[in-house]
Amino acid sequence: RKYIVPPFIDPLSNKNKELTPEEIDKVLEKYGLDPSIPMLLQISRFDPWKGIDTSIAAYKIARKEETCQLVIAGNIAADDPEGTDIFNQVCEQTKGDSNIHIIRLPDNVSLNALEVNALQRAAKVILQPSTKEGFGLVITEAMWKGKPVITREVGAIPIQVQNDETGFFITSAKKAAKRIIRVLRNPREVELMGRKAHEHVKQHFL
């Protein structure tokens, strides 16, 4: 017999443990985020394969029909010489829109984990439209927090996400925008999807 043992998460770690509303609000206040505006969130390195351009384009389409804000938060890997250039390009591409927030997360591992946790818990939907991906731990972390994930059917992501059950597979920014609008307009469906996502992680990835 052959067994696949996928990466897993620790539900009691700083990145995944339960947070109080006050802890979440503290992070939102630090980065000037309005909790009354539905948040679309992408957590990732500033990397050409993470599909950040798709997230930005999808937000711009969706906001024409639904009020929302986009948060892109991540680090620049020390071994990635392109990271700073991509970060600067993203900042330039999104300047002038007060509802797009580009966040460079702290290098301190513990603080970074807590802030990612808070941002994921505050978000309405998680965007992870990577064009290349192995096993996306950030997807599992978001699902553990009961969040639907909009992503692409690449790499190991199909092991994590069940399309239309715990998240959505998309192939373009336009399709991602349709899913964003669907999520924002159907809170009961999102709640059910979130519960399924949490249970899927509980059964397979702890």
Layout of helices and strands:
Layout: H1 21-30, E1 39-43, H2 52-62, E2 69-74, H3 83-94, E3 100-104, H4 109-122, E4 125-128, H5 137-144, E5 149-151, H6 157-160, E6 167-169, H7 173-185, H8 187-204
Parallel strand pairs: 1-2, 1-4, 2-3, 4-5, 5-6
Helix pairs in contact: 1-4, 2-7, 5-8
Structural write-up:
It is a single chain. β4 (125-128), α5 and β5 (149-151) form a beta-alpha-beta unit. The chain is built from eight helices and six strands. α2 (52-62) packs across α7. It is 44% helix and 13% strand. The mean pLDDT is 94. It is α/β, with parallel strands linked by helices.
Quick overview:
The chain has 206 residues and is α/β, with parallel strands linked by helices.
What are the salient characteristics of this protein?
single chain, alpha/beta, six-stranded parallel beta sheet, 44% helix
Q: Which residues sit in consecutive blocks of at least 5 with pLDDT less than 50?
A: none
Task: Name the strands of the widest sheet in spatial order.
Answer: 3-2-1-4-5-6
**DSSP strand tally:** 6
Whole-Å distance between the termini?
Answer: 22 Å
The secondary structure category is alpha/beta
Please state the average pLDDT score.
94
Based on CA atoms alone, the radius of gyration comes out at: 16 Å
Strand content: 5-15%
